[in-house]
């Protein structure tokens, strides 16, 4: 499927049935082929390709991908507009070197964008909205404690201090608080209702 989308244009010359079919379907077939490729990799049918695509070293480039996307077009336009002569392709080597120049320069600019613009706000956000990360063991203990508290219909405000739970103020649920208030003031309510 992918090869049909890539190389089918070589056989789609003129106004033939194949060229019409190719022009109408090559994008859909390309998308379906990529989806099938990813699905097969995830299911474990292409382990060599999957291990290459899941390599840890790609994380750096994946974080720079948005900056690369933003910077590649201005770099390309700069290279094209500042040429003194028209682009003349004498060989495929010319296009390969041209693409490599643009890719390396775009990658460098994407790195600058990441280090100057993207990373500082992320660091500030992490410092402002710092979350306390607790070990899985303490989470299990908290879940069990919450289940017990729900059984007693009493909840507590908790504060974490060095992975210890400190109970600050017991909080009774609104329904239970209303029940307690009605039970305490039951006699007063009867007296008040008989007056009116």
List the helices and strands and how they pair.
Layout: H1 2-7, H2 17-42, H3 47-53, H4 58-81, H5 92-128, H6 136-152, E1 154-161, E2 164-172, H7 174-184, H8 186-195
Antiparallel strand pairs: 1-2
InterPro entries: O2_lipid_transport_reg (IPR052728)
Transmembrane segments: 20-40, 60-81, 93-117
Protein name: Acyl_transf_3 domain-containing protein
Low-confidence segments, ≥5 residues, pLDDT <50? 133-137, 153-157
Look at the structure and give the mean pLDDT: 77
**What series of H and E elements makes up the topology?**
HHHHHHEEHH
Major beta sheet summary? 2 strands, antiparallel
Main β-sheet, spatial strand arrangement: 1-2
Q: Please give the oligomerization state of what you see.
A: single chain
Number of strands: 2
Number of domains: 3
Structural class: mainly alpha
**Fraction of residues in β-strands:** 5-15%
Q: Please state the overall shape, judged from the principal axes of the Cα atoms.
A: elongated
For the termini, the CA-CA separation is 85 Å
Q: What is the radius of gyration?
A: 33 Å
State the helix count.
Answer: 8
Share of helix, binned: over 70%
Q: What would the keywords be for this entry?
A:
O2_lipid_transport_reg; two-stranded antiparallel sheet; elongated; mainly alpha
Protein described:
Keywords: Membrane, Transmembrane, Transmembrane helix. It comes from Brugia pahangi (Filarial nematode worm). InterPro entries: O2_lipid_transport_reg. This is Acyl_transf_3 domain-containing protein. A hairpin with a 2-residue loop joins strand 1 and strand 2. The radius of gyration is 33 Å and the shape is elongated. With about 200 residues, the protein is mainly alpha-helical. The protein is built from 8 helices and 2 strands. Helix 4 packs across helix 5. It folds into 3 domains: about 1-55, no CATH class; about 60-130, no CATH class; about 135-195, no CATH class.
């Amino acid at each position: 499927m992918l090869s049909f989308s890539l190389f089918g244009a070589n056989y789609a010359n003129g106004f033939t049935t194949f060229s019409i079919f190719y022009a109408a379907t090559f994008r859909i077939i390309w998308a379906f082929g990529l989806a099938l490729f990813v699905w097969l990799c995830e299911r474990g049918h292409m382990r060599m390709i999957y291990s290459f695509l899941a390599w840890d070293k790609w994380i750096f480039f994946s974080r720079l991908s948005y900056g690369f996307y933003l910077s590649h077009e201005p770099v390309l336009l700069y290279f094209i507009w500042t040429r003194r002569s028209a682009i003349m392709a004498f060989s495929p080597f010319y296009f390969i070197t041209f693409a490599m120049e643009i890719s390396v320069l775009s990658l460098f600019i994407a790195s600058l964008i990441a280090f100057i613009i993207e990373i500082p706000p992320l660091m500030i956000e992490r410092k402002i909205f710092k979350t306390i990360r607790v070990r899985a063991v303490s989470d299990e203990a908290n879940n069990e404690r919450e289940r017990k508290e729900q059984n007693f219909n009493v909840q507590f405000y908790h504060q974490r201090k060095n992975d210890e739970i400190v109970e600050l103020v017991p909080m009774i649920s609104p329904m239970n608080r209303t029940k307690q208030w009605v039970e305490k003031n039951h006699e007063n309510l009867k007296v008040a209702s008989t007056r009116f």
